[in-house]
Amino acid sequence: MDLFPRNFLWGGAIAANQVEGAWREDGKGVSTSDMQPQGVFGPVVERQPGDSYIKDIAIDFYHRYPQDIALFAEMGFTCLRLSIAWTRIFPDGDEEQPNEAGLAYYDRLLDELARYGIQPLITLSHYDMPWALVKNYGGWGNRQLIALFERYARTLFIRYQQKVKLWLTFNEINMSLHAPLTGLGLEGQPDKTAVYQAIHHQMVASARAVKACHEIIPDGRIGNMLLGGLTYPLSAKPDDVLAALQENRRWLFFGDVQVRGRYPGYMLRYFREQGIRLHITEEDNAALQHSVDFISFSYYMSGCATADKKKAQTLRGNILSMIPNPHLTSSEWGWQIDPIGLRILLNMLWDRYQKPLFIVENGLGARDKLEAGNVINDDYRIRYLNDHLIQIREALQDGVEVMGYTSWGPVDLVSASKAEFSKRYGFIYVDQNEQGNGSLERYRKKSFHWYRDVISSRGATLQR
Ligand code: BG6
């Protein structure tokens, strides 16, 4: 049996706003995530004194990180993907000086990871940005955010240059097409021009962060982060095949710009036909030349596309609203499970870009049952992860360069889309319910022991 490479990074991925809690501690500012306490697809809530929401405490990782990191180390993690909350460093996003208490917090956290030899992979912005930038600047619609983001990124690179060598710019940058407030800080129902202009600013900011990282941390590597929205044609009809090509290009466009440094022809055609005119400067074009070192992505599911308008109306209510594939089964939340799709996606991205790939999110959201003795028999999760890891190994055999794998939510956390707690992803169970009641105690699930064995055997324990 082929083993995973020795330098393959193994671990898990978390995001500040889904684990930390402590939403106003140590000078933290209010973020877009704080203003959408019911999740990415929930409303903006004007908070009243005394209001409290599940994300305000989340799993209290802000205070309990030593315990969680010790558990990650017990599983043999060599990598932890985490995000920094922009609002802990620049509470309103436009201060001249960073908040020292916020910087010091992440210093302590990074030192704890170093104690166990766990390499951090840091996302600069994972589904949160200072709310003040939305209110006072109009979010990413405003070109000034490029410079404000660059200041934030440079502050982190300078401060943590000895401690962090792997970075990501924006989480699932293509999600902004589906959630413009979370992704771009655009309120209301922005039109296509407003959305793509804001996306342009964000991609320039991402490229400027790449440049800054290369200047400040010469031995560092920085990647982009895409939601891998793999789409198949619903049938072999050429019209459906074309529909799938176009659907895939809706998200690959982001990778094309971040890797190749220019807008692809198919996108220029789309802008022309839609009457979208973007304001792009020569300076922007120069910045975009700073290509990412590697490509990271999330992968949970695949979907289908068709040119048949009648069938297209059978859209499902999952994050990407894809058309279901009749050959696949789904999770409890209706996300279609497709391990082979991960091999296809890895090969597709490798063929297209020839840059190292990193799977930085993958996992199964499910309801777990806490049994007597604090036991959780999550065989369904083991099966899901096992089958996806097998396909990564296949892709490695295909010659794809894969840097590592960080499964989503190694410890249970608050879900992003609807801020649910009953949808759990972890190897570690957190005693907390949907109403925010629980001891927050941590328990090892069956998958905890399984993942530890997979890592220590470099995949030899995976089952075909
Ligand atoms: C990705 C996000 O979209 O999917 C994560 O990067 C998110 O933040 C994950 O948690 C799973 O989605 P959900 O809605 O089940 O939390």
From TrEMBL:
Pfam families: Glyco_hydro_1. PROSITE patterns: GLYCOSYL_HYDROL_F1_1, GLYCOSYL_HYDROL_F1_2. Its EC number is 3.2.1.-. InterPro entries: GH, GH_1_N_CS, Glyco_hydro_1, Glyco_hydro_1_AS. Keywords: Glycosidase, Hydrolase. GO terms for molecular function: hydrolase activity, acting on glycosyl bonds. It is an enzyme of class 3 (hydrolase). Signal peptide: none annotated. Gene3D superfamilies: Glycosidases (3.20.20.80). The active site is at residue 361. Belongs to the glycosyl hydrolase 1 family. PANTHER family: 6-PHOSPHO-BETA-GLUCOSIDASE ASCB-RELATED (PTHR10353:SF122), GLYCOSYL HYDROLASE (PTHR10353). This is Glycoside hydrolase family 1 protein. It comes from Pantoea osteomyelitidis.
